Amino acid sequence: MVSRHEGGLQNARKASIVVLSYLEQPLSNIRIYRQAIATNTYLQRQNVILQDELSRMRSAEQQNQILRDLLDLRESSELNLIPVRIVAKDLRGVNNAMTINAGSDDGVKVGMPVTNSDGLIGQVIVTADSYSQVLPYANSMFRVSAQIQESRAYGIVSWPENRHNELTMMFVPQTIPVDSGQVVQTSGASNQFPGGIPIGEVIRVEPGDGVETQIITLRAYADLWTMSEGFVVAFEPDSTILELENEQMEMF
Fold it and tell me: Most C-beta atoms within 10 A of its C-beta, which of 77, 186, 243, 244?
């Protein structure tokens, strides 16, 4: 029947072709739809892979920049710096703490400041052979003697509880002008921290209640919640100054 060309068979052949053409169109649409679904699934999978690769590249770039900044700080600083990595953090309350991977075997001692390329992080309070506990600036017990870089006015910096990356500087007289953007650094006057370590910048100033001093709010330079590396500053209080302070306390 396929090979014969009589009129009746030829007409039947034409009719079958017409019928098949009508059936082929929806079937081809189904095939195209299934191919589109498969292609879309493949592209989505590739997009996830590329997004993950891009995220890793951005993270690596950020990590490289942090390490470069730390290296620049170590090369330019006159202080003896011990590189450390943050291995544990507890920043959920008011008695926050951090653990670093350096201890007495590495030359770390209680009282030494901890910093990074951005600014002051905290102070070592407990040491073991290979690890140390750090009191970060975001702790209700933290205090540091500071000065405003531009005016050299002295004050005490502490943490107003539950404020992310904010600090408060007290005891600066109202007669001293303080403006937003001014830099606050360690003063070196307390014999606990070397002078010149950046702490933060002024973001607002308010008069103190019933006193002739100002309440200065700072934005801390170092972000405790994102940092992973830093330095312990191998600084020890001057023993002569400590002896004089002890003698003074005995006298009064």
Answer: 186
- Whole-number Å distance between alpha carbons of 209 and 92: 30
Residues with Cβ within 8 Å of residue 191, at least 6 apart in sequence: 237, 238, 241, 242, 245
Do 139 and 94 meet the contact criterion of CB atoms below 8 Å apart? yes
Q: How far apart are CA 210 and CA 208, in angstroms?
A: 6
Q: Which candidate, 87, 97, 166, places its Cα nearest to that of 135?
A: 97
The answer, as to whether pTM is greater than 0.85, is no
All structural domains of the chain with their residue ranges: 1-76, 144-222
Tell me which architecture the domain covering 144-222 has in CATH. Answer: Beta Barrel (2.40)
pLDDT truncated to tens, each residue of the chain (252 aa)?
A: 455 555 556 666 666 666 666 666 666 666 777 777 788 888 888 888 878 777 777 766 666 666 676 666 666 677 788 999 999 999 988 889 999 999 999 999 999 999 998 999 999 999 999 999 999 999 999 999 999 998 889 999 999 987 888 999 999 998 899 999 999 999 988 778 998 999 999 999 998 776 789 999 999 999 999 888 899 999 887 777 767 777 777 776
Alpha carbon distance 178, 226 (integer Å) = 29
Bridge-based pairing of strands 198-207 and 183-186 is: antiparallel
Say how many C-beta atoms besides its own lie within 10 A of residue 17's C-beta: 9
| 76 Cβ contact partners less than 8 Å away, ≥ 6 residues apart | none
Strand, helix or coil at 20? helix
